[in-house]
Amino acid sequence: MDLTNVQQTALMTMYGKALDARADDPILGDTMADAAVHKMDFDFSTLKLPKGGQISLPVRAKQLDGWTREFLAAHRDAVVLHLGCGLDTRVHRVDPGPDVRWYDVDQPEIIALRRELYPSRAGYELVSRSITEPGWVEELAAERPVLVVGEGLVMHVPTAEDVALFRRIMGAFPSGQFIFDVYAASTAKVVTLASKLGRTPVQLHTGLPQALRAELPELKLTDSVPFLTLPELVSRMSGNLFGRLYFRAIEAGWTRDSILHLRYRFG
């Protein structure tokens, strides 16, 4: 495989979920991700998986899976745009109904790898395009509600390009929701620096919630969940004294909003 640094993060995300699937008490239980890891001729030990990634990555996915299921339960004929889908198996985990149109969108190298790893299914299409490339949103426009999922995505895209993409999607669909995670500026700086010390350096961007509030006021924030306070994350990562003290400090306000899961609606 000849993947860029950002694309290699797709491997790390899948590997974290695969490790969770092997646990006695898994969080996500993504056995398809584990099967994909075993299929690949790749040394996953060369990846610098974030400490606790076998917990934090499944917890993040589980939160967004839950919001996805809620939306599809209320909108059985929805369109799902899974942006920067990477090697995630969300469409198989959520298992949407027959009237849902689900599109996994990512760069050609990632989509080609997905075709080798995962089965096709009815109502499901792969879109081999960069998410910021013009034209593809308009090709998928429909008079249906849309759910836009961006797991671990928006911070990898310049904020102005995120806003432009959101605006295009809102112009192509009558109503819908956006669900994604964001980093605070200080967190983005730390993660960017740490990545440069490893083998997959990235440059993260911040400020999307503020930009959306200023430039897309018709997009309304409905939920803001501090990731580091999610009960399953806290219970799983508080196994020692340091962990317990760390999460108590977060509850008291220290770094509480360093990572947020956000849900917006429009229409």
TrEMBL record:
Domain of life: Bacteria
Listed Gene3D superfamilies: Vaccinia Virus protein VP39 (3.40.50.150)
Pfam families in the cross-refs: LCM
Record-level Gene Ontology MF annotations: methyltransferase activity
Keywords: Methyltransferase, Transferase
One of the protein's GO biological processes: methylation
InterPro entries referenced in this protein's UniProt entry, alphabetically: Ppm1/Ppm2/Tcmp, SAM-dependent_MTases_sf
Presence of the UniProt keyword Metal-binding in the record: no
The protein, known as: Class I SAM-dependent methyltransferase
Species: Kutzneria chonburiensis
